[in-house]
Amino acid sequence: MCGIFAYLNFLTPKKRSEIVDILVQGLQRMEYRGYDSAGIAIDGSNDIESPHSKVALLRKAGKVSVLSDFIKESADDLDMDMEYNIHCGIAHTRWATHGSPRDVNSHPHRSNDKNEFLVVHNGIITNYREIKEYLEKKGHKFESETDTEVIAKLTQHIHDRYPDFSFRQLVETVIQQLEGAFALAFKSSRFPGQLVASRRGSPLLVGIKSNSRLQTNHFPVSFSKDAGWKWGDEKQTDGRRFMSNHATHLRDESSFVETPNNILDLSIAVRSSNGSAKLEISDSTTAVRPFDSADWEVEYFVASDAAAIIEHTKQVLFLEDDDVAFVEDGALTIHRISRHADNGEQKREVQLLEMELQEIMKGSYKTYMQKEIFEQPDSVVNTMRGRLLPSRQVVLGGIKEYLPDIKRCRRLIMVACGTSFHSAIACRQILEELSELPVVVELASDFLDRETPIFRDDVCLFISQSGETADTLMALRYCKPRGALTIGVTNTVGSSICRESHCGIHINAGPEIGVASTKAYTSQILSLLMFALTLSDDRISMATRREEIIDALNDLPNLIREVLKLDDKVHEIAQQIYKEKSLLIMGRGFNFATCLEGALKIKELSYMHCEGIMSGELKHGPLAMVDEFLSICMVVCNDHVYKKSLNALQQVVARKGAPIIIADNSVPEGDLAGMKHILRVPKTVDCVQNILTVIPLQLLSYHIAELNGANVDRPRNLAKSVTVE
């Protein structure tokens, strides 16, 4: 989805060229999220006496590299050597939802031709048509087809009506009128050196970089009074419009902010003579006071994704829904409009990112996806580290306190989308076997559409690599108030699902940059397998089965290395089928999820039609498609459905089909006689076998896409993190 990046430097002198480089590099770090256009907004005056008097808006459809070239072409109008002590810049990569990919539809969007207010937005505004209609009647002219432009125009409209509003007040008033999901960052020539950011439903975090060390890592939240603007139903013929019955009192700043001193001001975290700050926290206030302060500087980074920030700072603060982050005079404060009845004092914790810059670099690999496929021997070790103990116990610290409640539940419900959904299918059978509970697997969008009944004694698992998947997050918010115990299974610490669930399992696969998920999928399966093992740790009848699975997990990294040696052979097969229009992948039992996931990878990377089929359903329709011209791949493993899998293979061969076979080493050669292409993977326990059988299909999808000249890391029309419904 769209990527937001904003950068504000306070008393850290930067040339305009350096600011542009930081903004563009931030966008490049988020390219994997999927996008079709990009843009930045920076101070554009070349007059050293009034450096903030106007804003330069630079936008282009296409890749970030196209934008970078356009900025270089604009260098004649912009003095790139001009230096700013204080500057705010915003940047954006757009994934089209309203309006085609064109320069004018690219972000940032502006309030007027003077570029007085600019905004970047990730999400969808569902009531933008009504707001646009209202603003058009008030004389505002629109230049784009997007929903985002109404935000910039509305900010301008309220500012014109109430010129005494602060920048933060304007934004707080605007976001109260918006319906839908959004993450926003605002810049204005009216408020130079200030930055406002807010979120509702879409992820946003703030990075803090300073030579001064923070001695407290909690930002108190200030609560602002309601702005008084209402979107109401009028009986007049012009329909809905804005009203402002009580807004005039907002001109008094003290009446607007309920707790004006309840802030953490970085301006007082200054360097002493030895380069570090001494801070003292008073018992009577949440403000922090320094000693021996001489000068100080700070840089702020606002982004949709930690990958854009990690090279600058590891100190980050994750915003909650309806938070407003405001930077003025180098001070960062967090505000909210309303206080929930059950909330006392609220704080936002500064956290340290654990990822390293090299983790989001390609290294010696050609693409991120290739790197992530070959990282799987290490990623599965990271997933199991500290959990699968030498004593052969399995300990998941994130759910340990809730384990008794989980074991007493009525049913387990796994909710997910896409690849995460397939990982749930892959583990459904073993969860049923070890827990002896009914296990339901739900697509998040369908789960919400049906308004599925949820009970207090249900346990619901929400699986998402990013932890921000919109449908999965909405499903969590649907289940939680109905009393279900919610468990988040994510790869992103600090994500919305991670924060809002009762407990969770971090899959710890490491950053995944390629849009098509590979190592996160195998780590999700592994995490769910360990979850199943914890549910059965006190069952003597399951002891032998558990030992068998634990042995297989200990051997897994080496087994994956063996499978990755098939790369050259998979490439040869890809060379023979990459021009085909359709491919069927068949399997059953634990390997049905492998078929679904392999088909999804081939579809999203190579744009070839591909379908994963339960081989038990072959006679119920799909067999009609089989002939000597159809490309087919079949997964045949020596497990409890082996004879049934062989039966399906014989039916395909009888119709002159020539399938590619993925089989474990224990399958007899005689049963596969006459098969032209056989990919052998090591034999392991049945519920772990699907981790090994999916890797050849990951490699196949990669090579087919490469041979077709497709962009493997950023397939068309797709985004890494789907943060809108």
From TrEMBL:
CDD domains: GFAT, SIS_GlmS_GlmD_1, SIS_GlmS_GlmD_2. The keyword Repeat applies. It comes from Caenorhabditis briggsae. GO terms for molecular function: carbohydrate derivative binding; glutamine-fructose-6-phosphate transaminase (isomerizing) activity. Transmembrane segments: none annotated. This is glutamine--fructose-6-phosphate transaminase (isomerizing). Pathway: Nucleotide-sugar biosynthesis; UDP-N-acetyl-alpha-D-glucosamine biosynthesis; alpha-D-glucosamine 6-phosphate from D-fructose 6-phosphate: step 1/1. GO terms for biological process: fructose 6-phosphate metabolic process; protein N-linked glycosylation; UDP-N-acetylglucosamine biosynthetic process; UDP-N-acetylglucosamine metabolic process. Coiled coil: none annotated. Residues 402-541, 573-715 form the SIS domain. It comes from the Eukaryota. It holds the Pfam family SIS. NCBIfam families: glmS, PRK00331.1. Its EC number is 2.6.1.16. The gene is gfat-1. The keyword Transferase applies. It catalyses: D-fructose 6-phosphate + L-glutamine = D-glucosamine 6-phosphate + L-glutamate. Residues 2-330 form the Glutamine amidotransferase type-2 domain. InterPro entries: GATase_2_dom (IPR017932), GFAT (IPR005855), GFAT_N (IPR047084), GlmS/AgaS_SIS (IPR035466), GlmS/FrlB_SIS (IPR035490), Ntn_hydrolases_N (IPR029055), SIS_dom (IPR001347), SIS_dom_sf (IPR046348). Keywords: Aminotransferase, Glutamine amidotransferase, Repeat, Transferase. PANTHER family: GLUCOSAMINE--FRUCTOSE-6-PHOSPHATE AMINOTRANSFERASE, ISOMERIZING, GLUTAMINE--FRUCTOSE-6-PHOSPHATE TRANSAMINASE (ISOMERIZING).
